[in-house]
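Write out this protein's structure.
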Amino acid sequence: MIPKTTANKLNRFTTLPFLIDLLKNGKLILLSPETWEDHNDTDILMDYKDKKKIVGLLALCFTDQSETIHHWKAFSSGESGCCIEFDKTKLLDVLSKDKRIEHKKVNYPTVINSSIVATDDIPFTKRFPYKCEQEYRVIMKHEQNVLFHPIDIQLNLITKITLSPNLPKPTFDTIEEVLQSLMGKHKIPINHSSLFENRDWIDGFKKRSTVGP
């Protein structure tokens, strides 16, 4: 069972080019679902767009859960992956000022139940096998058929940055220095994910004097 979080955070798993753009320009980029790889998502969102006669449909995906191997593999794979943690309350306050934007926790019905999903809930619905993502989705109904739209945000909405567990330590140190130079007066903590090598976990087993039940 996926735990229900009460933490005031939204994690955005993405890659370094988007993180650098955010830190340098103070903009979050909403993208058209047409740019996504997963046709389970893209096809029903494009159908929703047509049914509702929406000119431009854009989206941005977060999760309110902590990192999992699925998040890294699906959204932030490779050495350039990263996770940006936002203060949920502050971020949603900013997004809610734009009346074109809706946001909601994603629901995960089984295929057999998909036909009973209300039309307005389609953008916030994914197949049951994706439930581990625990996605929180933001959509924008744009007046133009654009592929992206930037939203201005302050960097103090970011509470933490975590870089890929695939990064070698010397490379992490270099990237950390570069990212810090883009933050100006905002000193955001930058962590190196230990998902693939957590020394506390490993050392805890090594310190056991015996192996038993």
